[in-house]
Structures are given as C-alpha cells and as structure tokens.
Design brief:
The complex is a heterodimer of chains A (about 200) and B (about 425). Helices cover about 35% and strands about 10% of the residues of chain A. Chain B has about 425 residues and is an alpha/beta fold. In chain B, strand 2, helix 7 and strand 3 form a beta-alpha-beta unit. In chain B, helix 13 packs antiparallel against helix 16. The chains are: A alpha+beta (about 200), B alpha/beta (about 425).
C-alpha cells in the first residue's frame, strides 16, 4: 500500500526507521568512587527529583567506559528510579554523549559561522586528510575520532578545536592541528594542557 | 566608559575570592540583605536593568511576576551561552565567578528563593571547574550556604552541567533540562514565574544580567540608568567576531554605535586586511543582517530594533566582501537544523528544507523559483512555533534573500558559487556526513 506513487513501500526504504539502537555492551556498574560522586550530586536536588542528576550520571558512565551502552544506561535508570527509555530519551538528545565507540581522542571542530569565517573548514579538511578519515569516523588505530561541532561560544578565539568534550585549542590553523595530532600521538594527554586562554596570555 | 563588569578580568588572580573581597566583593549582597526583598525588586526596576540573554525583558518586572505565595521558589541562571557569535558570559564566569555568585544570591534574596541553579553548558567544563573551586571557598568562608555573612539567611548555589544543546538556552527548555529531560520548550503560559522548575515559581536570568546586580546595589539605580540611553541603562558586554582585526569581548555603554564597536581602535579595530565590510549580524546568529549604511545607530536594545534588527545577545558577527551570503545562510541553517529540538513541526521540517534548498543553490543546482521558495518556507516557520527558535531558524534565510537577492540569482544563473574565498574548504564539507 502506498500513499504516493513515488513512495513505493516495498521497493524503497521510506518506511524504515533510521533509529540506531545503542549496543548492549558489557555488564555495567559504577566504580565505588563514581557511585559516591553521584550520591553526592543527588543531595543537590530535592529528594523526589533524582531525575535532575541524569546528565551528570551519564557523564560518569561515559567517563568510565568512553561511551554510553544500553547496560550503562539501565544502571543509571535503576539508581535514579527511571525507566531505561527515559534515560535513553535524554542520552539520544544531547550531542556530548557518544552512543558508539569513539577514539581515545575525539577532535571536535567548531563549524558555525564565526569559526567558519576564520577558516574552520580548512582546519577540518586538514585534520581529515592528516588522519585519513571522513567527518564522523574513527581512524583505524582507534586513537582519533573527527567530529564537527556547533558553536562553542569562543568566537574571539576562532577557529576552535575541542578535544574530548573539554580541552579547547584556540586559534587553530591547519598547521597547528597537524602538530596537535602529532603531539597527542607522542605525548598523550600531556599535549592537552596549557592550551586554553591563548588570547589572554 | 569605565568598565564595571570586566574591570579586573585581565588581572591574574581576578577569579579568586581573596581578590574579589578586596574589590567590593559581596558588598552588594550585604546591602541587599539589609533591605526588604521588595525594596530590592523596586531598586532593580528603577535601574531599568534589562535581561542580557537576548529578549531584553526588564529584570525587576520578571521578579515581580514571580508568585511569592508558593514555596519553594528558584533562581535558574542561564549560563548555556550557545547563540552563535556570543561569548560574553564565558569571560565573566571564568575570570569573575564570585560576581555571578553574588548576583545569584541577590536574586534569591529578592524573590525569596533558597537555591540558585546555574545551568552551564557542557562545553564550558574548564570554566565549571574554576567555578566549583571558587564556590567551595565561598561556602567555606560563609558567603554561600548556611547563615550567609552571619545574617541567619541560608541559600545554596548549585552548578549544573548541560550536555550540548542550543535549545537549552530557551528558558522553559532550560528548566526541562534541569529536571533531567530533553531540552524542549514548554507551552506558555504558565510562565516560569508561576510554574517553572519542578512546577514551582522560577526566575530564569542570564549570567550578565545577574552580574550587573551587585553594582546596582552598591552604586544605586540612578547611577546604573545614567550609564546608557533611556531604558537601556547600565554597562553592556559586546562580543565582536568574524572578519575584524581584534575579535573580543568589549564592555561599553549602549550609547556606543555599532560602527564604533566594529571600527574603533578601542574595540574591534576595523576589518581584516583592509577589506570592505559586507554585512553585520548585530545580535547573535538569530537576528536580521544590517548593511554598511545602517551601522550609525547606538547599540542599544531599542535603537538596533529601530534599525530593523535586534541587539539580542550582542554577538556581533562581521562579514567582509569575501563572504558568500548563500554560503553564510547555509552555514547557519545547518546549525539550526542540527539544533532544532524537534518538538514543533514547522521548525523541525522547515529548517531541514531551508538547508536543502540553500545547499542546492550553493552547489549551482538551484532554480530561480527556489529563491522565492526559501522566503515561503521561512515565513511558514517564523512565528509558528512554541519558542523563538523558529523565528531564529527562518531569519538567516529570509534576511540574506532580502538583502542579497542578486547573489542568489547569480548562483542559479552561473551554476556555481560566485564569491569563492581562500578561507573556505576547497570542497563543501557540510552535509557530507
């Protein structure tokens, strides 16, 4: 049956959902320290409003295993007395939660107008070429994921490359990003410090 | 004008409690708690302070609307700064977090709230860590928490991290997100002042708005109002970015003209590499474009509106003659289609279509009728959604077609981008994934 001659349901895929299921992943429980952090956070909201801590809890899952899995989200649901669907509803909305495996370093290039005017497209192009991957992919070694990101609120330091949801690299150029990749390969996380507030300094 | 909000931001220790206490720190709060809450609201009303988040709604009036009979009440500080081109709250929070804490507490005193939630965007985690360390110091020294400054008054401040959603900057969506849900707007009324966070009366205020409160309490309402034109009093932070020599946050009176902010050596210092200015977005990406001959207006809420745009969040994005306006519109529409929360159909579907049509035109595959189609789709989004996002999403398409129609026609006629620039990617990146 079809509502439109060009939308033939059997032959084309109009009727198929684009929803991607989150992988189950290994059984998940918070480490004792992270569970304590979450319990501490819960005291900041009214006792009957545990749901307010769901973003914080999902960050903790992501911190523990790099990305979100169905078992991780179920664990959060149990602690906060929510249904797994309520947690997934939130997790699939916010862009800072990774719902598939990502590289050790996630390079997020701001692509919105002010950064683009300052040459962000060239930066993304250079990174894609350097890593040999397209936007949204992880390189074969599993070390880098390249993403585009929407306005980071640092347009005076444009273009910005954010690493792992928190470390900013400001006034990026194709050359400086190439150096950043090499540096991360050579020195690991040490390469991420001291890059913030270059403008003020 | 002598800076008020950003006076000390370049001092190395400006973010610390010790430094803040040496420079009138928490003096505004001390003054506030010696007054009746209603007197504080009257004072803020008299100062004419208008919300710095974008709408420019008078803060005192917002507080007056808060239902004072229902307990508990809340202050929700909007620190989700996500409007493209806006980066003023970042500097305040990172370099002067105690000013914000003080502002939150004054707000709490005025409306009788016991908790202020600061909703900070997830990408500002480096700022959040500075704030949390300083907040702990404020608690330890009795400037927040129990028995504040020995007055017997208790008030908590909680910093809540968002997770990347532009829509969370809309006040009801922010409240939804604080409650642990998707950041999607609510139907209004009821307004947050009556039923906000956890269905309780809530005042949602921007960071810069709250940071203005201590100086109003210390120096008085008349002093504040006299800093700017009528009904646009106080200091204002302007964020200038794009093709200017010195992008940055500049504090100035709203008497300063847009042209001064862009060209003056005290401010952004003119256009890069001696090029000519083509278009200016004066208030964050959601507002209409102004052209070169429209810049001689004071950068105040009312005057920019008279010029045909809005001051919004005062994020001034400057584009020079090398900017293709079809490309710029497409860049912003990608943002809006990506960030649309999906609740209202016109915005969710319309934003996507605007992006598709713009991509078609930019790639040289468009037809002449596509240009009018953009206007038609845009007009069917604007004003037809629950929140202002719909208007914001339609604006980049409508305003570029209105002001640069010839450029759209040239794209269609010649089948290619007619304004290439060396700072853009060799091949279009957006939409490739």
């Amino acid at each position: 049956m079809s509502f439109h001659p060009l939308m033939i349901y059997d032959r084309q895929r109009f009727q198929q959902s684009e929803r991607r299921m989150v992988e189950e992943g290994p059984p998940f429980t918070f480490t004792a320290a992270r569970r304590d952090t979450l319990d501490e956070l819960l005291t900041k909201y009214p006792p009957e409003q545990k749901r307010s801590a769901v973003l914080a809890a999902l960050y903790l899952v992501q911190e523990q295993q790099g990305h979100l899995t169905a078992s991780g989200m179920r664990h959060v649901a149990e602690i906060l007395q929510l249904t797994p669907a309520e947690v997934e509803d939130v997790a699939t909305y916010y862009v800072m939660f990774f719902r598939e495996k990502v590289g050790k370093y996630v390079l997020q290039v701001c692509r919105t107008l002010s950064c683009a005017l300052a040459g962000a497209e060239r930066v993304t192009e250079a990174l894609a070429e350097k890593l040999g991957i397209h936007i949204g992919e992880t390189d074969p070694s599993g070390m880098f994921t390249l993403l585009e990101f929407e306005c980071l609120g640092a347009c005076d330091r444009a273009p910005i490359v954010m690493v792992n949801n928190e470390h900013w690299h400001e006034k990026a150029t194709p050359e400086s990003c190439g150096r950043l990749v090499d540096d991360l390969k050579a020195r690991g996380e040490a390469a991420l410090s001291g890059c913030h507030l270059r403008v003020e300094k | 004008m002598e800076p008020v909000l950003t006076k000390y931001v370049r001092e190395p220790n400006s973010f610390t409690l010790d430094f803040f206490l040496k420079h009138d720190g928490y003096a505004g709060l001390r003054k506030a708690v010696s007054m009746e809450p209603n007197a504080v609201i009257e004072m803020v009303k008299a100062s004419g302070l208008r919300g710095r988040g974008g709408a420019g709604f008078p803060t005192g009036m917002k507080w007056q609307f808060v239902d004072k009979k229902t307990e508990p009440r809340y202050i929700a500080c909007n620190a989700d700064e996500s409007e493209p081109g806006t980066f003023k709250d970042h500097v305040l929070m990172e370099r002067n977090p105690h000013l914000l804490f003080e502002g939150c507490l004054i707000g709490c005193w005025a409306i009788g709230a016991k908790v202020a939630y600061i909703y900070i965007r997830g990408e500002f985690y480096h700022v959040q860590r500075v704030m949390e360390a300083e907040l702990a110091k404020a608690y330890a020294q009795g400037y927040a928490g129990k028995n504040i400054m020995g007055t017997g008054w208790d008030c908590d401040i909680v910093i809540h991290r968002g997770a990347g959603a532009y829509e969370a900057g809309e006040e009801t969506a922010l409240i939804e997100s604080l409650e642990g849900k998707r950041a999607q707007p609510r139907i209004k009324p009821p307004f947050p002042a009556v039923a906000g966070l956890y269905n309780k009366p809530t005042a949602v205020n921007n960071v810069e708005t709250l940071c203005n409160l201590p100086s109003i309490l210390i120096n008085g309402a008349e002093w504040f109002a006299a800093l700017g034109p009528e009904k646009n009093g106080g200091p204002k932070l302007f964020c200038v970015s794009g093709h200017v020599k010195k992008p940055g946050v500049f504090e100035a009176s709203m008497r300063t003209s847009l042209r001064e902010l862009i060209y003056d050596q005290k401010f952004a210092g003119g256009i890069r590499e001696g090029r000519k200015l083509k278009a200016v977005i004066p208030g964050g990406s959601s507002v209409p474009i102004l052209l070169e001959n429209q810049l001689d207006v004071p950068a105040s809420f009312d005057d920019v509106q008279k010029a045909g745009s809005m001051l919004g969040s005062a994020g001034i994005i400057v584009m020079d003659e090398t900017t293709c306006m079809v490309w710029a519109a497409k860049n912003l529409l990608y943002f809006y289609k990506h960030e649309s929360c999906g609740k209202c159909t016109p915005c969710r579907e319309g934003g996507d279509w605007l992006f598709k049509i713009l991509t078609r035109i930019e790639n040289g595959e468009g037809e002449m009728r596509d240009i009018d189609l953009l206007t038609s789709v845009g007009n069917n989004i604007a004003g037809k959604t629950l929140c202002a996002f719909g208007d914001a999403a339609a604006t980049p398409a409508l305003t570029t077609v209105k002001n640069f129609r010839a450029e759209f026609e040239a794209h269609v006629r010649e089948g290619r981008c007619t304004v290439p620039a060396d700072w853009r990617a060799a091949k279009p990146l957006v939409g490739a994934h």
